[in-house]
What we know:
Strand content: over 45%
Radius of gyration: 15 Å
Number of helices: 4
Number of strands: 8
CATH topology: Alpha-D-Glucose-1,6-Bisphosphate, Chain A, domain 4
Order of helices and strands: EHHEEEEEEHHE
Distance between the termini: 19 Å
CATH class: Alpha Beta
CATH superfamily: START domain
Structural class: alpha+beta
Amino acid sequence: xxxxxxxxxxxxxxxxxxxxxxxxxxxxxxxxxxxxxxxxxxxxxxxxxxxxxxxxxxxxxxxxxxxxxxxxxxxxxxxxxxxxxxxxxxxxxxxxxxxxxxxxxxxxxxxxxxxxxxxxxxxxxxxxxxxxxxxxxxxxxxxxxxxxxxxxxx
Length: 154
């Protein structure tokens, strides 16, 4: 399953980059996040409760950053185990560029799941995942004190 979006964030690119790498800002922005903390130079441990509509499994896992170009881009990959619900995994490319005095953030991701999660059906999971992504960026802007405006697909 593929997801993504483009967002204008009313803050300079270096401020957006700093917020994307701040565990407290991320915890405030990720719906259902119970904990997130740096466990290494490029890794974060997290626990999140995901609302899939008919079920709300908790996942524990690790996020790994790669392809890092400070204040420009990185790839974020993660896997989480949700007990009886199986495994969820995904990867996202996040790119930042100047948009006047604001920042254009482009987000592309792919994800998948196994076990009981897939029995819920791709449509339910796809809608839930896109809502989580959109909710993340709305809450991310609020957590860093900047307005976030979603853009239509190119």
